[in-house]
Amino acid sequence: MAKAIQGYVTEAVLADRTSGAEPAVVIEELDDLSSTDDENTATSAPPAQSTSAASSRTNGPSLPSRPAGLGSSSSLSQPPARTVQQVRANGPVALDRGSHQATEDDGDENDEIHQKLQMIRVKFLRLAHRFGQTPQNMVVSQVLYRLGLAEQLRRNTANGTFGYDSARQIAERLEGVGNEPLDFFCTILVLGKTGVGKSATINSIFDETKLHTNAFDCSTKKIQEIIGTVQGIKVKVIDTPGLSCSSLEQHHNQKVLNSVKRLISKNPPDIVLYFDRLDMQSRDNGDVPLLQTITKVFGASVWFNAIVVLTHAASAPPDGPNGIPLSYEMFVTQRSHVVQQAIRMATGDVRLMNPVSLVENHSACRTNRAGQRVLPNGQVWKPQLMLLCFASKVLAEANALLKLQDSPIGKTSRTRIPPLPFLLSSLLQSRAPLKLPEEQFCDDDDLEQDLEDDYDSDDGSEYDDLPPFKRLTKAQLAKLNKAQMNAYLEELDYREKLFYKKQLKEERMRRRMMKKMAEEASARANDYSNNNPEDDSNTPTNVSVPMPDMVLPSSFDSDYPSHRYRFLDTPSEWLVRPVLETQGWDHDVGYEGLNVERLFAVKGKVPLSVSGQLTKDKKDCSLQMEVASTVKHAEGKTTSVGLDLQSVGKDMAYTIRGESRFKNFRRNNTVAGVSATLLGDSLSAGVKIEDKLVVNKQLRLLVSGGAMSGRGDVAYGGRLEATLRDKDYPIGRMLSTLALSIVDWHGDLAVGGNFQSQISAGRASMLVGHANLSNKGTGQVGIRLNSSEHLQIALLALVPVFKNIQKLLQSYSESI
C-alpha cells in the first residue's frame, strides 16, 4: 500500500515538472507584472484546483490560506528575477555545461526530497481529515505553510510549487476508499502536578477507561505506558506520577523524573504534554521550583517540543478587579500567560512560547451531536489537542528530511536580550564621590556642607540663654489640667529642639576640627618620615573591640536575638558584616548574606573602595562586587570610575562606568557619565547627564536623563526628583520625596510616579505613607503608623485574633 501511495505522489511530482518547469524562465517578466493580483489571491483565499494548462504553467498550485502572524507568503513564492537568471538586453544568458550538469544533479535530489515531502503532506492531510478538520483550520494551515517554507529554505530558491493541490487530491482519494491504512505512530509523554487530570485526559483521548482515576487521591503511582488507537491512528502515552510544587518535594520529583528519563532514553517521545489547571488563580512563582527541576533533568530543550494543557477548562471565569466576571477569552489568556511566564523563568529564555490546549474531562461537560465534549468557547478540544501532537511529529520528520536543524534552547540561552531599562536605571542612579579617610569627617555632599556654613550663624546659642527649667514628675503631671499640660509639653518640645540644634552645631564644629587635625597630622607624619626613614617598632597594638548591636526589624516576639549578629571591630582594615533580611518576621529573622568592604588610599591621595556582597538562600545565590575610585582635580571637580560585577541568573554582568562632576555655582553641580555592560555575548553602552540644585535647607531638586543601547536597540529615560524636608531636619522629622520617571523602549512609553512622606503625629508617633502609580494601570498605596507611647495602639493587634476565634467558635457550633 505504501508503494501505491508513493506512485500517486510520483505521478503528481512529474505532472508538476512537465507543466511548469520548462517555461518558467521565459515568462518571468510577465510574472513580475502580474504578481500583485496573484499575491492577493494566494494570501486571501484557499487554494483552488488548476483548470487549464496555461494557469498551471503561470502560477502553479497556490499556497493554502496564510496563517495569521506568519507574514506574507507572496515574497516567498515570487522572488526577484536575479535569483533565477541573469537578465540581459538580448534575453536570457545560456548556462555553461558545468553549471547545467550541477543543476541537473540538484534537480534529481530535489525531486526525491520533494516526493518524500509530498508523502508527509499527504499523511498530515489524512490525519486532519480523520479528525474532521479542513485545511482552513489554524493548526493545519500553519503546518502546511511551514512545510512549504522549509522546502524553499532547503532549495534556497522559491522556484517551483508547494504541491498542496496534488497532496490534497491524493489525501482525499485515499481517505475516500475507506480501507487504506495510515502508517503513523505517535508517542506522547505526560508530565504535570498531582491531581490536575492527567489520567482522566488519557481516558478521554482513547474514549475508554485505560487508567483508574480517583478524585480524592493520586491515581498514578508508577510510570505506565498506554497503547491504543485514536481514529485508526496508533498512539502510545507515557503516564507519570504527579509532581509537587513544594521546594521540599523537589528531591522526590527529581527521582521520579530521572526514572522517566531512563525509560525514554532509547525511544524519545514525539511530544511532551505539561498539565496544569485552568481554574488555579495563583499569580506567584510557586510553580517555578517544579519547572526548574524538569528543566534540570531533561534539559531546556524539553520545552521546545512541549504543549501546555490546561484542564478543568469549563470552569466559570472569576470576578475581575471591577467585580464583574471576566470573559472566557480573558480568563484563558491570563492563566496561559502565568504558566508560560513561569516556564520562561525556569529556563531563563524569554523567547519561549508554548502552545496551549484546553481540556475538560467532566461528565457534565456540554457535548455536540457527535458526543464530543465542547468548551465554553465552542471548541471541540480533543481534535485540537491531537492535531497539535501530530503536527509536532510531522514537522520533526520534515526537518530531518530537509536537514534543517533547530537550535537547542539550552545552547542559545547564552544569547540574552540585554535588559536595557534595568541597565538604564542603574546608570541614572546618583552616586556620591569617594573621599579619603581624613575627609570622612565632613558631609558626603559638598553642597550640603556649603549650605550648613550659610545657616550656622542662624542657630546661635539660644539654648544657653533660656532660663532654668525643671521637669515635672508623674505625680505633678497628673495634677495639671489640659491647658497647663499643653503649655508644659510645648515648652518641653521647644527646649528639646534648641538643645538638638546646639548638639548638631557642636558636631559640625567637631568634624571640621577633626578634619583640620587629620590634615596637620598627615603633614607632620610626612615630614617625620622624610627625616627618619627607619621604621618605628614601638607603635601601639590595635585591640579588637565589640561593635554595637545591630537594629533588628520590629517584632512582637519577646525574644530579641541581637546576640546572633554581634561582631568585632578588628585591627584589619577589612570590614566584614552580616546582611540581615529586612522583610523578616518574628523568628524568621536571620542571615541573608555577607558584606565585605575596604577603603584604600593609593599613594595617600586617591581613594579606592572595594566592596562585595554574597547573598544565598535555599534556591538562589547572587554575587555583587564593586571597585570604585575618585580623582579630585580641583575644588568642586572630580572624576569617578568603577567596575561592577553582578550575577544575573546563571550569567555574570560586567559593567564599567565613569563620570565627571563639576560645580557650576555654589549650590549647583552637574554630572556627566558613561557606562558599558557585557552580559553573555551582548554589549550595551549608555550615557547620562545629571544636575542637582539645592534651593534652600528645605528643597532639593535632582534631574537626570540618559540613553542605553544594545543589539541595535535603544532605551531612553529620565528622572525628576524633588525632596522637601523640615527646616530643622533631622530635628524636625518631616520628609517628603516626589519622583517621576519616564522610560521609552520599543516605542512603549512607561511613566511612573512615586511619592513618600513621613510626618510627625505626636511626641512619640510617626505617620509614614507611600504611593506609586504607572500609566500601565498598576500602583500601590501604603500607610504605616509607628508609635511607642500609647498601649492602646499595640492592643489593636488583638482585634483580628478575637475575630478569628469568634469565627472558629461559630463554625464549630454550626457543625454541632
TrEMBL record:
Its cofactor is Mg(2+). It is a single-pass membrane protein. Residues 32-85, 91-110, 438-467, 517-550 are annotated as: Disordered. GO terms for cellular component: chloroplast outer membrane. Residues 41-82 have a biased composition (Low complexity). Residues 183-413 form the AIG1-type G domain. GO terms for molecular function: GTP binding; GTPase activity; metal ion binding. Residues 440-465 have a biased composition (Acidic residues). Keywords: Chloroplast, GTP-binding, Hydrolase, Magnesium, Membrane, Metal-binding, Nucleotide-binding, Plastid, Plastid outer membrane, Protein transport, Transmembrane, Transmembrane helix, Transport. The keyword Transmembrane helix applies. Residues 527-544 have a biased composition (Polar residues). Its main location: plastid. It is found in: Plastid, Chloroplast outer membrane. One of its GO terms (biological process) is protein targeting to chloroplast. Belongs to the TRAFAC class TrmE-Era-EngA-EngB-Septin-like GTPase superfamily. AIG1/Toc34/Toc159-like paraseptin GTPase family. TOC159 subfamily. GTPase involved in protein precursor import into chloroplasts. Seems to recognize chloroplast-destined precursor proteins and regulate their presentation to the translocation channel through GTP hydrolysis. Probably specialized in the import of nuclear encoded non-photosynthetic preproteins from the cytoplasm to the chloroplast. This is AIG1-type G domain-containing protein. The lineage of its organism: Eukaryota, Viridiplantae, Streptophyta, Embryophyta, Tracheophyta. The gene is ga07759.
